Amino acid sequence: MDIAPVTIGHNVQIGPNVDIYTVNHPLNPIGRRKYLAKALPVKIGNDVWIGGKATITPGVTIGNNVVIAAGAVVVDDVPDNSLVGGVPAKVIKSLEEKKID
Fold this sequence. Notes:
The protein contains one helix and 13 strands, in the order ββββαβββββββββ. With 101 residues, it is mainly β. The chain has a single domain (6-93), classed as Hexapeptide repeat proteins (UDP N-Acetylglucosamine Acyltransferase, domain 1), CATH 2.160.10.10. Strands 2-7-10-12-13 form a five-stranded mixed β-sheet, with no helix packed on it. It has a three-stranded parallel β-sheet with strand order 1-6-9, with no helix packed on it. A three-stranded parallel β-sheet has the order 3-8-11, with no helix packed on it. Strand 12 and strand 13 (90-94) form a beta hairpin. It starts with 5 loop residues before the first strand and ends in a 7-residue tail after the last strand.
């Protein structure tokens, strides 16, 4: 569901039933009654693996060499070389960056 850009880098693997959202709605009822929406772009770096049923929320930037665990809900930016998981997703560990010849 998007009304803002979704940028996907090179060598990105996206599992089944992954949701990438760029639109959100106000928390207050007046804004919702007026059908106000706020769009924020999503950026996904290179060499990213997004596990099945993960959710990426508006405005998130995912760095390079990132693994997102299945079922994770990503609500904050993800730094390069990270494994994230959970609801909301948190950094579980740093990943080794290897140069590809």
